[in-house]
Amino acid sequence: xxxxxxxxxxxxxxxxxxxxxxxxxxxxxxxxxxxxxxxxxxxxxxxxxxxxxxxxxxxxxxxxxxxxxxxxxxxxxxxxxxxxxxxxxxxxxxxxxxxxxxxxxxxxxxxxxxxxxxxxxxxxxxxxxxxxxxxxxxxxxxxxxxxxxxxxxxxxxxxxxxxxxxxxxxxxxxxxxxxxxxxxxxxxxxxxxxxxxxxxxxxxxxxxxxxxxxxxxxxxxxxxxxxx
Length: 228
What we know:
By secondary structure, this protein is of the alpha+beta class. It has two domains: 2-102, no CATH class; 143-224. 43% of the residues lie in helices and 14% in strands. The chain is built from seven helices and four strands, in the order αααααβββαβα. Strands 3-2-1-4 form a four-stranded mixed sheet. A hairpin with a 4-residue loop joins strand 2 (156-165) and strand 3. Helix 4 (77-86) crosses helix 5. The radius of gyration is 31 Å and the shape is elongated.
């Protein structure tokens, strides 16, 4: 008896779904009459489905708002989703993003702090400015310029290092890292640049001569490749 009752309920659910999917083609009342279904029962089913979605959305909204305020308003949709999943609360990043948009909240990165990517007060000897603002060359790999900048994300700061060839303004090397060590910034970008375009002997490498660029392991590799 229980199996038969469950089977009838499943058939009714399928019938309701069929009516919903074709409601733009035929009137609900006509389909209910043909399929011998009460139109009031169908509308009750629709209302129940809407109510369940609404309850689930309100529940997820509470979770999102709680995580947002626990993070002191720093978390974005990605971090909130990850944090909820760690606590066993399953949801999608798109759903979290919709909730944040509806609640008019977003990640607030503290503007009072900005990473200092250029640290020139390192007390070490710096090289003379050979380039002297001459940003044109007649051949590749004669003069490269490099800089390190920061990018704010939901997860914190990321540091982007780029090396550009002044001949055609191509980015010959780059790196993205979570710290500002020479190994993870300048050296990674430099290794990529050497693979993409071999430096000419006597090539000029121009930078702001911050602490990453005057690191001994980087300077040693420049000398090894006859770069000035």
